[in-house]
Amino acid sequence: MIVHQDKSTPVVAVNILYDVGAKDEHPEKTGFAHLFEHLMFGGSVNIPSYDTPIQNAGGENNAFTNNDFTNYYLTIPLKNIETAFWLESDRMLDLAFSPKSLDVQRNVVIEEFRQRYLNQPYGDIWLQLRPHAYKKHPYRWSTIGKDISHIANATMEDVRAFYKKFYHPHNAILSIVGNVTEKEVRLLCDKWFNPIKKGEKYFRNIPKEPVQRKKRVLEIERDVPFDMICKAYHMCARMDNDYYATDLLSDVLSGGSSSRLYNRLVKEKQLFSELDAYITGDIDEGLFVFSGKLMHGVTMEVAENAIQQEIDAIKKKKIPENEFKKVTNKVEASVEFSNISILNRALKLGISELLGDIELINTEAQKYKSVTAAEVRELANKILVEDNCSVMYYKAAETHKNK
Amino acid sequence: MMVNRKQQPELKKIESIDILEPETGRLDNGIPVYLFNAGDVGVTRLDFIFEAGSQFQTQPLVASYTNKMLTEGTLSYSSFDIARKLDYYGAYINNTTSKDTAVVSLTALNKHLKYVLPVLNEIINHPKFPENELKIHTQKDKQGFIDDCCKVNEVAVMNFNRQLFGSKHPYGTLVRAEDFDNQQVGRLSAFHNERYTAKHCKIIASGKMSKDILSQLNYFFGYTKKSCEDTNTRISGKIIPGQQKQFIEMPSSVQSAIRIGKISVNKAHKDYMKLYILNMVFGGYFGSRLMKNIREDKGYTYGIYSILLSFQKSAAFIIASEVGSDVCCKAIDEIYKELRILNSEMISTKELELVKKYMTGTLVRNFDGPFQMADRFKSVIEYGIDYKKFYSEFLHVINTVTPEDLMVISKMHLNPDTMQELVAGKK
Predict the structure, then answer these.
(1) Residues A190 and B2: beta-carbon distance below 8 Å
(2) Which residues of A are less than 8 Å from B322 in CB distance?
(3) DSSP classification of residue B78
(4) How far is CA B319 from CA A235, A324, B259, in A?
(5) Distance (Å, rounded) from C-alpha A400 to C-alpha A167?
(6) What pLDDT does residue A403 have?
(7) Over 80: is that where the pLDDT of A107 sits?
(8) Whether residue B108 has pLDDT greater than 70
(9) Contacts of A37 (CB under 8 A, 6+ apart)
(10) Between chains, do B109 and A336 touch, taking CB under 8 Å as contact?
(11) CB–CB contact B143 A263 (8 Å)
């Protein structure tokens, strides 16, 4: 339980993070953490509907699932904060597990799969890139699941087992931001959450991704208008000392419209209509990704070489002081902007605690500031090497090109 | 202590909302400035609102490219200089163009404001619209547009506007790929000259600002040209709604996008608030009838909603969803069924109470902090509406509206037989 008092707001943000993500799924039952997120709104043991009482209290809620964790969040007028405790504690106590809810939410998730991944041009990029870059680690599947049949075949038995294993106090982090004191929150916790049986702490045993020793190439063809290229390099884990420098490396390359990739490859050379470099920022070892859509008439080879030139440049040449200062300034401002929303602060507190360092929310900006330009360059030399790269050529089908 | 988990903790009614009145001022050239000075974050946001939306353009995309190209080269700075300066101070400029307005929004840390205001001045008052920059942007945007034309949802959005407002009215403009090639520097600069003047401008400043913000603004923007003769004659077409039903076939899609809706009333209309509440019941929130039926009962879709879109000169009521192609017809039937129920059966007090409480809570959230208040203010100012009065009255209407009132509104504004319909995808 974490409380941050903000006296300026009439609203309170309540965030519950469960330490379970898609990486905790069985390889033959993927997409479960996310399906389960949907079922958490299907009524709990004492309360038939989650949404109605929260709407009655003037609150708003939602949730998201990623590969590392599942997060439930709400904002509610401070006066009605107790409703949040009542609802959240009941669905931590036990769910209703109605067969109808499972039936409907399976369909809803299948439609979500279609809407987001199948029915959008380039929508399946991550479904392809993950298993290309990861061979052992469960990051090799997306939160929506490897295969839609895993969702279609989910049984009530699977669902109950999943709940029992992951949804209990031992696996949850509650964070609250608003005009409340720790004492007030403690009283509410004692009343609503303390009576819930703790459950057994889950210890994950996730296979480490073996070091990649050779460049991997994947070529696929889709019915899209333009070619696309993705290059993914393995990078460090979230709590590694190199994390901040890696993030800054992506910013030098691609943060903002004065960045290198945008100016040289999108604007000067006009090879890409869009081009980004970013990190996934996962808790375990993540990916440093380049992804770009090619301008019509540009070949994959030319596009890839152009990215390579920028990689070589950052590896060989010192990053000018002014350019580096720009990047760190920008990060400092972004951190400040992201702290405006109480909901964001509540989420950050939850994640900091999950990572095992609650102080992170306060020290984050300083950690970025203490990185040097030389360290960023060193990291480029360590990560952005050919043997560590999984490249995907995502080609527009000829039939589409001729249209 | 045993708690009763079956019983919801007692709810407190929300009687009033703290609505901060902005301080107002005027620059030397008459530009009105509205200041929302509150909060405790060291960030300032400046919104420059110009009456320069797409309704004022004579050719497609001129309004949005005029706005977008402001940051791509000025009298003293190149596009790269501007980007570098803004990035160096961690400031953001957001350009958004809607049917009615063009907004240039700057967000910066207070301590950096004085360094970025001169850049903003260049952008707003001295843009040069370099030819090569325009070419780069239109060509890459054209590719984005071609991508969008493969998305059922985007295709539905574009074509439904045309269907609702017709080809004669600027709100019904349908953009085509070749419009990107046809952009000309001269037109953009003429549009800027005509519409980005003091006469067409308002400034909203929000955040925790220093006392001299008004004089800082006056120093940079108090000299902006007052007005310019409107030389460009705009399309002054009438709204003539198009066909009742439209089907755009996209054979490779696995989902179809549905739009059902009609021309409606805007924020200045006496029925707006009640219709807004009725829309909330019907499809405006997660617990709405459309969501309950089509997602939570039938599982046809990941999401469905209805919305009341208000524009200066018109409005639209639109129901939108992406559904599995195999259940598209069934989903459409269910939507009409829900419309008929709304038109024939009184809303229960219980359902209305729920919506009222939800909406009151939403209002509280929507007035949380200076940036939120500035957004609310921005959303009504173009209608000449007094914002405090509008939202106080809104709260009052929410608290007092009856099922009978809403039945009258439903029959008048949401008659299923008057709806237009579009499907993009497969049926």
Answers:
(1) no
(2) 111, 115, 119
(3) B
(4) 44, 48, 6
(5) 47
(6) 46
(7) yes
(8) yes
(9) A63, A64, A65, A70, A72
(10) yes
(11) no
Closest CA to A333 of B112, B326, B282: B112
What whole-number distance in Å separates Cα of residue B388 and Cα of residue B80? 42
A10 → closest Cβ in B90, B107, B364 = B364
d(Cα B352, Cα B346) in Å, to the nearest integer? 10
What pLDDT sits at residue A145?
95
ipTM: 0.92
- For the stretch B198-231, pLDDT in tens is 999 999 999 999 889 999 999 999 987 777 766 5
Enumerate residues 151 to 170 of chain B having a beta carbon within 8 A of any beta carbon in chain A: 151-152
Residue A256, CA distances (Å) to A40, A73, A272, B265, B296 in order: 38, 29, 16, 40, 40
Question: Residues B146, B147, B151, B156: is their CA dihedral positive or negative?
Answer: negative
Calpha distance A98→A93 (Å, rounded): 16
Report residue B127 as tokens: 């843009």
Query: Residues 233..272 of A with a Cβ closer than 8 Å to B: which?
Result: 255-259, 263, 266-267, 270, 272
Which has the closest alpha carbon to B278: B401, B164, B376, B396? B401
Q: What is the pLDDT of residues B183-205, one digit of tens each?
A: 999 999 999 999 999 999 999 99
Residues A301, A302, A307, A308, CA torsion sign: positive
Concatenated DSSP letters of B152-164: HHHHHHHHHHHHH
Backbone angles phi, psi at A244, to 5 degrees: -70, -40
Query: Per-residue DSSP letters for A36-73?
Result: HHHHTTS-BSS-S-SHHHHHHTT-EEEEEE-SS-EEEE
- Interchain pair B287, A329: CB under 8 A: no
A219-231, pLDDT tens digit by residue? 999 999 999 999 9
Please determine, for residue A400, whether its predicted confidence score (pLDDT) is greater than 70.
no
Q: Which of B358, B373, B426 to mutate to test the interface with A (most CBs of A within 10 A)?
A: B358
The pLDDT score that the predictor gives to residue B13 is 85
Distance, in Å, from the CA atom of B362 to the CA atom of B367, rounded to the nearest integer, reads 9
B304 touches chain A (CB under 8 A): no
B107 and A337 within 8 Å at the Cβ level: the answer is yes
- Looking at every residue in chain B, the average pLDDT score rounds to 94
Among candidates A176, A143, A130, which has minimal Cα distance to A64?
A143
Q: Does B6 touch chain A (CB under 8 A)?
A: yes
Structure tokens at A103: 């039936």
Q: State pTM to two decimals.
A: 0.94
A82 near B CB under 8 A? yes
Reduced 3-state DSSP string for B83-124:
HHHHHHCCCEEEEEECCCCEEEEEEEEHHHHHHHHHHHHHHH
Q: How confident is the model over B233-253, as pLDDT tens digits? A: 455 678 888 889 999 999 989
CA nearest to B19 within chain A: A10
CB A30 within 8 A of CB A146: yes
Q: Measured between alpha carbons, how far is B86 from B18 in angstroms, rounded to an integer?
A: 34
**Per DSSP, which regions of A186-243 are E strands?**
216-222, 228-234
Question: Average pLDDT, whole number, for chain A?
Answer: 95
Q: Residue A172 in contact with residue A20, Cβ under 8 Å?
A: no
Total residue count of chain A as it appears in this document: 403
A101, A39 Cβ separation under 8 angstroms: yes
- Planar angle of CA A227, A225, B68, nearest 5 degrees: 90
Say how far apart CA A33 and CA A158 lie, in whole Å: 11
